[in-house]
């Protein structure tokens, strides 16, 4: 395999630029063999979409058109990148005939978890489609058509995973005895008993979950058979699948950026069941992947081994990402393991994951195993052939990052075309029971607009300073500040101990804060003391590797929650220091921020961003509303899976953060905390819950609020990728959605909506901002708040900046301030 020096291939292909980390040698992407039937598959499966140009040449980038209020006139429409799933014969969703399965041990104890674990492994095997079908093209059969209409065997679980009843749909492949042996081992004496079949309908919460999972399993089987040669297919949650482009030469879904990095398209397809219809939402993201496996890197003497903790992804099966560990490297992948019931690691993966057979064809039994470590799970042993490095944008140098951004930027038309292509490839996965519409869902604009995104409605900016900076910024105890200076600064400025640099920075901070006309002498004194009292640490800035190594070691010595100032003044250049700092920070709990003012707001001798960050770390807040956005007595409270969710008043001010629960606050906990701490002002609570809330939790919270005579609304805000909103007009074509657009989903009386709270900020989403999904789960009977008011509050709170610089640019945050947790243990790294 020929080797070339790592380089960035710019989109224009006019010149080749050397990447800073040019010492790494990687094999060329030109050596990746194409899959023989890729193009044949694309042409044969696409319905009404010509892919010849897509597969043979790069997709043409088109100009991004932004919509404005003026453009939202007659003829302008918005669509949601989702497709309705309807019954093929009735107005309601059809029922599915399922059979409950039960397994007990020798003592009669139910073994639900063991049964589901066996089924989970069983269903990973290559699905067997109907070989008795009259249709010679077997791959076009849907799972519901297979086996003479009985359907492929599909499994689901009602209710909570590992607890709810196991359900089977379709023609059974294994007997009850065979399932029992797989679940309990060969010593099992009983068998899995099949209950009375019944008609499953999505009426209850448990029924809806199982219904969605059966449809998801059908989609998974269908996708494997239809697009499995172009994409790796994996399950996501309980209702979605993930299509990740394979590293195939010439594929329209995989684009090499350099000899060491490729951008892979990732399509998330999620099924959601509503009252009388279901929908298949599709969204596009990207994964940066190395063409090498961990085994190839370990075997190549010219390459450095991946460090402990490097981010990797599993290949040929479930799309699991985590950290690499060599902790049990004494394992041999070919030796029998007791925990695998006598099988070796290689045998285990070959038997259960057909796609991994080819990946392991050159595996050596004496090779050592590695581990995939995921948060909250026990480490899993893997052959190194099944793991590949994942490359994060944050650790790339500036040139490579710009090249990736340019490649992924695309346009709304590009996004629409790619999703339409995937939709066409899938055809009708649920025929003949369901029809999936060919066109994306059209959204109806509501009669009222969202609240104004005008910057004049807020207090606090880079010119006048943060909105809150008085008592709060001087009372809170915080860890000391550490100032990192490059070693070349000593010769450049003849500053042997760094005191001159710190003194200049202190003077600049005072000048900046006095120019705000809002900071008191006490505020200014505290920030000056933070800088002048900072511990000065020198780091080696002679190369990218030395910067990363030197800073990485020092960062690990810092106290949790410390603030670190890193000077980019260096003989090596600012870009090199920034790249090294980001790489060093990527391996620890930290966040990197820019402390250098933009050209549009910069003034000579002023550091507004730096001073704003130092003020807000002491309890200040960057912005507030000039006028209240809600009635007196209304509080907005965050809840969800992360600690530090805030309680916010009607001016957008953070009153308190909920640090009591390490894994976040439930709806009930959020209500209890708000009532106990703010009983004098809390009259109506609006809970913003991150993701889907639990029905029993919402019911308990509602009862608690009722007994305390406090009215309550609970709103689920789904931040995960739920699809995109795309605009269209005849004279403009496909466009960016309007910033602030929102629409109900499921009818005018629905409590379900989608809203766009950001502009085109990210360069890695094909030019279309990610929306929020809003679902109201509980509403007060005494206080009437319509859905328009709910989404207006969310949109307004998304413009509030709680910490850092009060940026003029709106659309910076997708989520409201209520769902922005604060990690008190993370290092705050500020680049100067």
Quaternary structure state of the chains depicted: single chain
How many structural domains does the protein architecture include?
A: 4
> Roughly what is the average pLDDT, rounded to an integer?
78
| Protein structure class | alpha+beta
Please tell me what the overall shape is.
Answer: globular
Supply the key terms.
40 strands
Q: Concise description?
A:
This protein is α+β, with helices and mostly antiparallel strands.
Overview of the molecule:
This protein is α+β, with helices and mostly antiparallel strands. The chain folds into 4 domains: 1-94 and 212-290 and 394-449, no CATH class; 96-200, no CATH class; 461-616, no CATH class; 624-722 and 771-827, Ribonuclease H-like superfamily/Ribonuclease H (Nucleotidyltransferase, domain 5), CATH 3.30.420.10. The strands form 9 sheets. The protein has an 8-stranded mixed β-sheet with strand order 32-31-30-33-34-39-38-37, sandwiched between helices. A hairpin with an 8-residue loop joins strand 8 and strand 9. Helix 3 packs across helix 4, helix 13 packs antiparallel against helix 14 (521-532) and helix 15 (544-555) packs across helix 16 (574-585). The relative contact order is 0.11. The model is unreliable at 1-74 and 761-765 (pLDDT under 50).
């Amino acid at each position: 395999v020929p080797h070339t020096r790592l380089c960035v291939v710019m989109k224009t292909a006019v010149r080749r630029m050397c990447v800073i980390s040019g010492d790494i040698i990687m094999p060329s992407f030109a050596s990746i063999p194409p899959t023989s039937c890729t193009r044949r598959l694309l042409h044969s499966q696409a319905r009404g979409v010509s892919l010849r140009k897509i597969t043979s040449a790069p997709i043409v980038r088109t100009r991004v058109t932004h919509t404005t209020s003026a453009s939202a006139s007659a003829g302008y429409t918005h669509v949601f990148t989702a497709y309705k799933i309807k019954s093929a014969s009735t107005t309601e969703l059809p029922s599915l005939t399922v059979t409950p399965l039960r397994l007990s041990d020798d003592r009669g104890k139910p073994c639900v978890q063991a049964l589901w674990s066996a089924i989970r492994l069983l269903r990973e095997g290559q699905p067997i489609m109907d070989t008795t079908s009259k249709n010679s093209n077997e791959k076009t059969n849907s799972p519901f058509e297979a086996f003479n209409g009985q359907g492929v065997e599909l499994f689901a679980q009602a209710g909570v995973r590992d607890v709810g009843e196991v359900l089977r749909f379709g023609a059974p492949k294994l007997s009850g005895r065979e399932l029992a042996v797989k679940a309990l081992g060969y010593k099992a004496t009983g068998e899995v008993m099949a209950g009375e079949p019944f008609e499953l309908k999505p009426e209850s919460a448990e029924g809806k979950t199982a219904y969605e999972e059966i449809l998801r399993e059908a989609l998974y089987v269908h996708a494997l058979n239809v697009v499995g040669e172009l994409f790796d297919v994996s399950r996501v949650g309980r209702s979605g699948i993930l299509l990740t482009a394979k590293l195939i030469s010439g594929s329209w879904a995989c684009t090499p950026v350099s000899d060491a990095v490729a951008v892979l398209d990732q399509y998330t397809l999620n099924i959601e069941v509503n009252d009388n219809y279901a929908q298949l939402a599709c969204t596009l993201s990207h994964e940066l992947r190395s063409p090498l496996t961990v085994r190839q890197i370990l075997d190549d003497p010219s390459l450095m081994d991946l460090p402990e903790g490097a981010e990797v992804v599993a290949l040929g099966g479930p799309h699991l990402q985590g950290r690499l560990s060599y902790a049990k490297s004494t394992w041999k992948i070919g030796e029998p393991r007791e925990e695998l019931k006598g099988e070796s690691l290689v045998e285990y993966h070959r038997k259960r994951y057909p796609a991994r057979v080819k990946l392991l064809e050159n595996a050596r039994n004496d090779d050592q195993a590695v581990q995939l470590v995921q948060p909250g799970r026990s480490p899993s042993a893997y052959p190194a052939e099944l793991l590949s490095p994942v490359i994060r944008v944050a650790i790339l140098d500036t040139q490579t990052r710009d090249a990736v951004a340019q490649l992924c930027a695309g346009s709304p038309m590009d996004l629409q075309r790619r999703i339409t292509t995937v939709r066409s490839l899938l055809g009708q996965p649920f025929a003949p029971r369901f029809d999936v519409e060919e066109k994306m869902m059209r959204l109806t604009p509501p009669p009222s607009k969202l609240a104004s995104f005008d910057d004049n409605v807020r207090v606090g900016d880079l010119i006048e300073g943060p909105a809150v900076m008085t008592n709060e910024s001087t009372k809170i105890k915080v860890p000391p500040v550490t100032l990192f200076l490059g070693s070349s600064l000593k010769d450049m400025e003849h500053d042997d101990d760094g005191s001159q640099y710190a003194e200049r920075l202190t003077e600049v901070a005072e000048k900046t804060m006095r120019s705000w006309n809002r900071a008191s002498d006490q505020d200014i004194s505290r920030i000056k003391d933070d800088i002048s009292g900072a511990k000065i640490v020198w780091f080696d800035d002679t190369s990218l590797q030395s910067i990363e190594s030197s800073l990485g070691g020092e960062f690990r010595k810092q106290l949790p929650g410390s603030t670190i100032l890193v000077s980019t003044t260096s003989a090596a250049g600012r870009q090199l220091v920034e790249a090294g700092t980001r790489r060093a920070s990527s391996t620890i709990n930290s966040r990197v921020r820019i402390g250098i003012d933009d050209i549009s707001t910069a003034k000579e001798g002023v550091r507004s961003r730096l001073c704003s960050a130092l003020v807000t770390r002491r309890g200040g807040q960057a912005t507030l509303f000039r006028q209240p956005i809600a009635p007196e007595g209304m509080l907005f409270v965050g809840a969800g899976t992360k600690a530090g969710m805030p309680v916010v008043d009607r001016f957008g001010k953070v009153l308190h953060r909920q640090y009591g629960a390490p894994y976040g606050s439930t709806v009930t906990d959020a209500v209890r905390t708000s009532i106990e701490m703010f009983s004098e002002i809390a009259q109506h609570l609006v809970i913003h819950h991150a993701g889907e809330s639990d029905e029993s939790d919402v019911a308990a919270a509602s009862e608690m609020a009722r007994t305390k005579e406090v009215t309550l609304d609970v709103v689920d805000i789904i931040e995960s990728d739920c699809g995109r909103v795309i605009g269209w007009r005849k004279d403009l074509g496909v466009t960016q959605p309007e910033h602030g657009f929102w629409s109900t989903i499921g009818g005018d009386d629905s409590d379900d909506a989608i809203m766009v709270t950001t502009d085109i900020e990210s360069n890695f989403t094909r030019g279309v901002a990610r929306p929020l999904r809003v679902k109201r789960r509980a509403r007060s009977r005494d206080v009437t708040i319509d859905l328009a008011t709910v989404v207006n509050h969310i949109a307004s709170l998304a413009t509030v900046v709680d910490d850092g610089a009060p940026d003029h640019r709106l659309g910076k945050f997708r989520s409201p301030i209520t769902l922005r947790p604060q990690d008190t243990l993370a290092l705050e790294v500020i680049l100067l």
